Amino acid sequence: MLDFTVFGDTTGLDYPEDWADPPGDSWWLPPTDEGLADTTWVCDRWFMELRRGSGDPEYFGVAELSYQFEDGQEYQCLYTGAWRMTEDCLELMLSAGVGTSTGGCFPVLIAPSGEQLYIQESRNGISPPFFDDGVTSMTMTLSYG
């Protein structure tokens, strides 16, 4: 008998079909806490701000997720919480402020340019709040404004 477990892990044959590398440049790598500190990312109508310093020694910084309900309107903060990198995952612990919280560890890769952040649903199928139903990954763009 042969054990093909290692073969599947090495070749990716056991990975889900939609779990793939991000589009574009090759050699995307997981970012670091320092690499994500004080950055803002946008995708569609979502705006994710990752700031340094959370006040919680277990987390690296404060995360805010804002949404723009209509074109031209200001973004409204819907979730706040803490963030940190845990190996190759962005760990977010967020609250909507009404006794509800959400979070998870989401695999992320950053483009060599540092201007795109590819984020996936967690390995156990949990999606960040800014994923539409059925979406398993998305690319966010660095915002300078």
Could you write a compact summary of the structure shown?
With 145 residues, the protein is mainly β.
Notes on the protein architecture:
With 145 residues, the chain is mostly beta strands. It is globular and about 35 Å long. It has helices at residues 5-11, 33-36, and strands at residues 39-43, 46-52, 61-67, 76-86, 89-95, 101-110, 116-120, 137-142. The termini are far apart.
Mean of all residue-level pLDDT scores: 84
Query: Which regions contain 5 or more consecutive residues with pLDDT less than 50?
Result: 6-12
SS-based class: mainly beta
Radius of gyration: 16 Å
> What is the H/E order?
HHEEEEEEEE
The total beta strand count reads: 8
Counted by DSSP, the helix tally is 2
Biggest beta sheet summary: 8 strands, antiparallel, barrel
Q: Helix fraction? A: under 10%
Strand fraction:
35-45%
Shape: globular
Distance between the termini: 59 Å
- Major beta sheet, strand line-up: 1-2-3-4-5-6-7-8
What descriptors fit this protein?
2 helices, 145 residues, eight-stranded antiparallel barrel, mainly beta
